[in-house]
What does this fold into?
Amino acid sequence: MSTAPQPFEAEVGRVLDLVINSLYKEREIFLRELISNSSDACDKLRYESLSRPELLGEDPELKIRIVVDPNERLITVVDNGIGMDRDDLAQNLGTIARSGTARFLEQLSGDKSTDLKLIGQFGVGFYSVFMVADRVVVRSRKAGTEQGWVWASDGRAGYVVEEADGPVPRGTSVSLHLKEDAKDLLSEWRIRDIVRTYSDHIAIPIILEMVPVAGDTKTKREPAQINEASALWTRPRSEISDEQYKEFYHHVAHSFDEPFTRVHFTAEGALTYTALLFVPSAKPFDLFDPKRRHGVKLYVRRVFITDRLDELLPRWLRFVSGVVDSEDLQLNVSRETLQHGAVVAKMRKQLVKRLLDELARKAKEPAAEAGKPAPYEAFWGEFGAVLKEGLYEDQESREKLLELARFRSTHGDGWITLDDYVGRMKAGQETILYISGDSVAALRTSPMLEAARAKGVEVLLLEDPVDEFWIPAVGDYKGKKFQSLTKGAVDLSKVVGDAEPETPLVAEGDLGRLIAKVKLALGDAVKDVRPSQRLRDSAVCLVAADNGIDLRLERFLRQHNQLDTASGRILELNPGHELIRKMAELAKPDTGNGTELDELSKLLLDQARIIEGEPLPDPGAFSRRMSAFLARGLGGATASA
Ligand code: ADP
It folds into this structure.
């Protein structure tokens, strides 16, 4: 019987291309992926069997077998776990259900080294078999069903799913017809070595069965268990190597970076449980996907219960993965009971505390080499934006998070802490000043910084959208209020700063007259026009009103359709700037410069909008005005030459 293959979903096709072009250096990781899937399948069946013991039937000892047949160049990984029916096979092995996959694939550049890093964060799972095999046959029967199914593919043309001819044992077997150049995998020594390296932590026995080489009647090898088969988290910490921890992390997190750090402890007392949690070092590809959840699996006395208990960790720790194994909960506890249960709430609190304490410990670790960033700073660069969500979501952790937070500022290029900032505050400076925008690099050149810079006052440069939300929620740090340099009146006059050169200012009366005329010219386009305290080298800037929302937050909300009207802006003029001085001259009574002043005012407003990153309402008009003034300037230059 032959059926035309069903093509793979487009995304699978692209992942397969990557796999077959062998982005992975270590091809043997396919075995880790298969064992990991088999172990999950056994966990799921064990859980299901709590309420339906008949599912285990005659075959209650869950195990994984690796059958190596050098004669057929075949490796088969067999489990007696939950199994898959026809739909499961098509769905799980023909599509990639993970959210964010399309976006992940878009990011691939075709450059092998960067793609390798990305795909490491993504994990190709089952498809890694096509690195070593040119034909893969999966036979499976789902627990509780009678019919077995066969899925087969060469990893190119698509796949076929058919009814199995004869009886199929419960669970799944994956047979790999190895490529010619993967023959080296057919050795007992290699398989043992791979399992020891990558899968020793698997809590289910892994049995190796070597099929004797044809013609060799002398060597007879019995099936042998090749892993320790005790749950890693139950072993004493002193007996677990970093390598073993790392491989366990790869298994639970389905990601392939080095863990940044881990916490492994047993809580005793009111609640008894063991937790082994990992903090990754590289961003998972779906970190900002709204569907992203933490990767902590809940076990009850070594039996897997669920990996979907959102309440076990807050959203702002969604990059953490690992295992929590409770001694107190009922084995047959339902997810609904767990969600609102006191036990889970209490565990969550303790887990958060442990994780934050561990991060605080890591934050003290110095850089490996002088001049290199400290490990914690690299971590913060990857995950800081997520941790900052905790600042407004979680009052209880706020204080610790503020200490863990790192910032860019006008003081050098590195990361600083809020304590660093407070320690450098000038005499008379009462607030922690910040500006926010789309990138630190762009913020560094913002005119809003000019006055502060002239006085040597440090300013935090914030570039994460989340900054707009936590700052208003937090309000202050150790009694010092956060203050935006782009909002309201900023008064640096009381700050005793570094010596600054005096600039001649426009006389007050002249300035008042100019401001009145500019206001008239701009009408409703601005809410107010006033002299600026924050500028030194630039002529103008736009700021938000004292009680308004920050300019960037407003843009952000408008982009996300959360806000439809723009609130009024305030245009500030720098009374020390040459252009403003000249304009004040033009504004003197009876000079007859009304139209010119009008045009200049509009030009200035557009200029301030550009600096602020706001779109120009009428770019054509801006360009015409600009050209007219430039032409006049040039005309003057040629005339006087
Ligand atoms: P991942 O394991 O990251 O979800 P995979 O590509 O490795 O991705 O596997 C896809 C899905 O196929 C798994 O989530 C699981 O539902 C199913 N699957 C794979 N192997 C097995 C197996 N041995 N037994 C039961 N289900 C399996």
